[in-house]
Every structure is written in C-alpha cells, then in structure tokens.
C-alpha cells in the first residue's frame, strides 16, 4: 500500500506543474477574451466631424486626443477618442488642404500635408495658430517633374 501511495504521489507531482501552468494560462486569457467579447458585442462607434465634407488623415495627440482633417477644406478637428467627440479646431484659410498629418507632441506641433497645393503647414496644437507654411513643390503636382530626376 505504501508503494502505491508513492506512485500516486509521483504522478501527482508530475501532473501538478503542467496543471498549474494551464490554470494560470486560462486565468490570464479569460479577461482578454471578455474584453474582446464586449467590444464585439457593441456596435461600431462613429465620431462625427461637424461640418466636414471629406475626412482625411488622423494623428494621435496627447492622451486620448486625436486630430483629423477635412481633405479639401483643410479644416482641422480635435477630438477625444474616449469621449467620442470632436470639434472644429482650426479653420484653415482658403485654398488649403489636409491630406495627411503627424502630431509632434514633444514640440506641440501639428504637421499637415497640403496635397495638391504643394504646401505643408505647421500648426500649434495648443492654440491652433499657423506656425509656418512651406512650399514643397508646384501647386497641382503630386510628384516632381520627370526632368528633375533625369540626367542628360
């Protein structure tokens, strides 16, 4: 009877570690699974950019702040992803566009590509003021002319 108990104890020890690992794995996966299930169960949320006609470009700001642009008007919106809200932040001057953007959080700047305007704009993320405007290429062109890259 003693040898039988020792055999059972040995089997139990061998099985204990894998069972413990399995238990910890299941315990750690369950909260993630619940979070995914909760996200799938609720409908997609839409954040409206009031007055935007064609949204383009999005940049992450500090915390839950984001920036998004109106493609052809150049208007920039600032929103809060957690609250699901957005408001007009920068009323861009006429003939500006917002085809893409990047927030420079370290310097408090928002860099915006002007697409066919050939320009890039730099705005303050604190005030929305224009910090700089750069002419990067000819208006109406999205690439440098072919002759600029060829050698003769």
Please give a structural write-up.
By secondary structure, the chain is α+β, with helices and mostly antiparallel strands. 29% of the residues lie in helices and 30% in strands. It has helices at 2-41, 146-149, and strands at 55-60, 65-70, 76-80, 85-90, 100-104, 109-113, 119-124, 130-135. A 4-stranded antiparallel sheet has the order 1-2-3-4, with no helix packed on it. It has a 4-stranded antiparallel sheet with strand order 5-6-7-8, with no helix packed on it. The protein is globular and about 85 Å long. Residues 19-43 and 144-152 have low confidence and may be disordered.
Please summarize what this structure is.
This protein has 152 residues and is of the alpha+beta class. The protein has helices at residues 2-41, 146-149; strands at 55-60, 65-70, 76-80, 85-90, 100-104, 109-113, 119-124, 130-135.
Mean pLDDT: 77
DSSP, total strands: 8
Q: Which segments are poorly predicted (pLDDT under 50) over 5 or more consecutive residues?
A: 19-43, 144-152
Structural class: alpha+beta
- Roughly how many Å is the radius of gyration? 28 Å
The biggest sheet, with number of strands, parallel, antiparallel or mixed sense and barrel status, is: 4 strands, antiparallel
Helix content: 25-40%
Shape: globular
* N-C termini distance: 97 Å
> How much β-strand is present in the residues?
25-35%
Written as H for each helix and E for each strand, in order along the chain, the element string is HEEEEEEEEH
Count of individual helical segments: 2
Side-by-side strand order of the widest sheet: 1-2-3-4
């Amino acid at each position: 009877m003693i040898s039988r108990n020792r055999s059972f104890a040995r089997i139990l020890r061998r099985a204990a570690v894998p069972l413990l690992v399995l238990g910890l794995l299941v315990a750690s996966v369950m909260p993630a699974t619940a979070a995914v299930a909760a996200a799938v169960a609720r409908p997609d949320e839409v954040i409206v950019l009031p007055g935007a006609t064609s949204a383009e470009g999005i940049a992450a700001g500090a915390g839950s702040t984001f920036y998004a642009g109106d493609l052809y008007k150049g208007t920039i919106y600032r929103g809060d992803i957690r609250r699901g809200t957005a408001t007009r932040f920068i009323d861009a001057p006429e003939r500006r566009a917002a085809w893409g953007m990047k927030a420079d959080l370290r310097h408090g700047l928002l860099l915006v590509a002007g697409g066919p305007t050939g320009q890039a704009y730099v705005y303050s993320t604190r005030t929305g003021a224009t910090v700089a405007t750069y002419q990067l290429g000819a208006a109406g062109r999205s690439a440098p002319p072919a002759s600029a890259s060829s050698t003769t």
